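Run log // design_07
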């Protein structure tokens, strides 16, 4: 029987009512007990590493998750990480960049409703996460609703719908139909390289700036003055920045001259950035702005944090 480690971090899935609304309280053992279908599927151990509403997750918590995974990587066949849905796509992306050579399933899951709530989606999600964690999947993925999604391609799209996460710019790793996982690919995130390794150093001074019509570019001075090392400009369509009356190009040049990496991303959910189509893109590119390509904001932010962290991954 396969051995799976469940790492609990909190989230709605583990919540109970309190005076001020839902708070995470239930541990992994309690969650698993509520899913009788797991009996006999695998041997399950639990570690409660955090107990947070995921809106309170920070890069420090991503390091805790990565270290917990690294610590037990050799002791288990797969991992299920229960997590709040609000920032689960960020955590999955962060872990996807932090691990290399991951040959085992590392599966994030959560729920829109607490596991004890009537009509909850939590039991199905937990069961499907364990099915994925005992499968041939390699690397980081996210299981939610009817989908298994690559760790770098997940985005929370709905605040209530049970199919709350979509796979952006990549086919689902698997679709789920009547408790059967129909796999398109077993290749999750972080699988490249020979031996399993982790790198937990992240540069936290990376900001995402949403460009809106008419927003003055001097907002970027805020980040420059505070020593930010990376800025992601989440602008429009195929990417680039305003270059006419409200001209962002001088500020982009100033950031780059000061050693700040500038990435152009887009507010569009699908497809991605192409800086070669319009002057708004080509001129920014000439100044040294980079394209986020087809990466989601979650994946672009965590990639830049990892790259600017400038640490080589180390083996166990
Ligand atoms: N606020 C919750 C969280 O992210 C929402 C959820 O888990 O669905 O922790």
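design_07 sequence
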């Amino acid at each position: 029987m396969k051995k799976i480690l469940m790492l609990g971090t909190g989230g709605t899935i583990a919540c109970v009512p309190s005076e001020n609304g839902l708070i995470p309280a239930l541990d992994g053992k309690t969650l698993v007990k509520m899913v009788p279908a797991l009996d006999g599927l695998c041997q399950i151990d639990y570690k409660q590493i955090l107990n947070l509403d995921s809106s309170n997750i920070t890069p420090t918590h991503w390091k805790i998750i990565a270290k917990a995974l690294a610590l037990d990587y050799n002791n288990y066949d797969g991992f299920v990480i229960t997590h709040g849905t609000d920032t689960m796509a960020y955590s999955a992306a962060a872990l996807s960049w932090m691990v290399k050579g991951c040959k085992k399933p590392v599966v994030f899951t959560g729920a829109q409703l607490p596991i004890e709530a009537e009509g909850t989606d939590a039991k199905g999600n937990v069961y499907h996460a364990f099915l994925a964690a005992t499968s041939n999947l390699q690397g980081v993925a996210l299981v939610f609703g009817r989908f298994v999604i690559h760790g770098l391609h997940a985005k929370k799209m709905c605040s209530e719908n049970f199919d709350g996460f979509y796979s952006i710019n990549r086919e689902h790793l698997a679709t789920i139909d009547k408790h059967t996982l129909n796999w398109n690919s077993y290749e999750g995130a972080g699988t490249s390289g020979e031996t399993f390794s982790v790198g937990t150093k992240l540069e936290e001074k990376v900001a995402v700036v949403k460009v809106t019509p008419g927003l003055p570019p001097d907002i970027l001075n805020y980040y420059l003055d505070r020593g930010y090392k990376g800025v992601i400009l989440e602008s429009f369509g195929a990417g680039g920045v305003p270059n006419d009356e409200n001209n962002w190009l001088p500020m982009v040049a100033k950031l780059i001259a000061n050693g700040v990496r500038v990435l152009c991303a887009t507010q569009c959910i699908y497809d991605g950035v192409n800086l070669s189509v319009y002057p708004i893109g080509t001129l920014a590119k000439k100044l040294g702005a980079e394209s986020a390509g087809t990466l989601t904001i979650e994946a672009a932010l965590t990639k830049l944090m990892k790259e600017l962290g400038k640490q080589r991954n180390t083996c166990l």
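The mean pLDDT is 97.
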